[in-house]
Design goal:
Elements (H helix, E strand, L loop, with lengths): L1 H40 L8 H9 L5 H16 L3 H15 L1 H12 L6 H5 L3 H10 L8 H4 L1 H6 L3 H31 L5 H15 L4 H20 L7 H14 L5 H13 L5 H32 L4
Length: about 300
């Protein structure tokens, strides 16, 4: 019985090695084809001076394959990080993401009589994403594409388990961070009464999108965050502008983001305006599902699909 099990395992390992060898040979052939196409594309550059050629190279954007490789390698690194590192980075991200409602509340409080209050106060929503993304903290919705690309490239049981572990740790840590931020705001007096009331008013607006509405509005938010991750390798020097532009779009369109929104939900729970079961069932879980559909189900699959035949 044991011998049969060992023989089956060995057969599986051999099949995997054969598959890897065939895959490597196919990838090598594709790389050679891309290199040949690249050499052909450079032929007209023969008329340029050396300085002009360097200028052309400097102004070339990253190819889709190059962007994919950058994000995939980042995903591989994330999957191999210790659980404790993921946890504390996730908690820090949860605390950091909570500055969105704080910044929005500050602008909301100052623009009470302005007809452009909604459009301007949503600029505050971008603050938290700038803080979290540029600090390289673990945000769950970024990982809907970052750690998925390595799985799509080489689907293995081990990678699925690693991704599930990372998602579980990071999501729980993000929730812990946003809950702690809400706890400090409501009970520790870390914000002024006027600012706290503005934060609660903004949170009540988020709570209007519950159930299927929260799920549907979460899909474009997940897609935008995944697209943002995809754009950042090409946005050297303009990262701040790109982050602000696309996260502002999420806020201005009232799309739902599970981590940023959870802080608003916890504010209402701790203020006695909503029970925790309703908060989780009607807001957090539907938004989570929507973000995963948009980030993994749509963007990650499309991103992989456009480079699969070139890898």
């Amino acid at each position: 019985m044991k011998a049969d099990s060992e023989n089956t395992q060995e057969a599986d390992n051999q099949a995997e090695r054969d598959l890897d060898a065939a895959e490597l040979a196919e990838r090598k052939q594709r790389r050679q084809q891309r290199e040949e196409a690249e050499r052909e594309a450079e032929q007209p550059d023969a008329a340029l001076t050396q300085t002009e050629r360097e200028q052309v190279i400097a102004h070339r954007g990253l190819s889709a394959v190059a962007i994919y490789s950058v994000i995939r390698h980042e995903g591989e690194e994330e999957l191999s990080r210790p659980a404790i590192s993921l946890w504390w980075s996730g908690v820090a991200a949860g605390l950091g993401i909570s500055t969105s409602v704080l910044a929005e509340a500050m602008l909301h409080d100052q623009l009470t009589d302005s007809p452009y209050q909604h459009l301007i106060e949503n600029l505050g929503y971008t603050v938290d994403f700038c803080l979290v993304i540029l600090s390289r903290l673990q945000l769950f919705t970024e990982n809907t594409i970052t750690v998925v690309l390595p799985i799509l490239a080489r689907p293995r049981r081990r990678k699925f388990l690693q991704a599930a572990k990372l998602w579980g740790i990071v999501f729980t840590a993000n929730m812990a961070g946003t809950f702690l931020a809400a706890l400090l705001a409501i009970y520790a007096g870390t914000t002024t009464p006027a600012l706290t009331e503005s934060m609660l008013e903004i949170s009540r607006h988020f709570a209007e999108s519950s159930g299927i509405t929260a799920l549907l509005l979460g899909i474009p938010a997940g897609f935008i965050i995944a697209a943002l991750v995809w754009m950042l390798p090409s946005a050297k020097g303009t990262e701040l502008f790109v982050i602000m532009l696309f996260t502002y779009l999420i806020a201005a369109c009232d799309f739902t983001h599970v981590i940023a929104g959870s802080n608003e939900v916890f504010l209402l729970v701790l203020n006695g305006e909503m029970n925790i079961i309703t908060a989780i069932a009607d807001l957090i879980v539907p938004t989570l599902i929507g973000n995963i559909i948009g980030g993994t189900g749509l963007f990650a699959m499309l991103a992989y699909g456009q480079v699969h035949e070139e890898m």
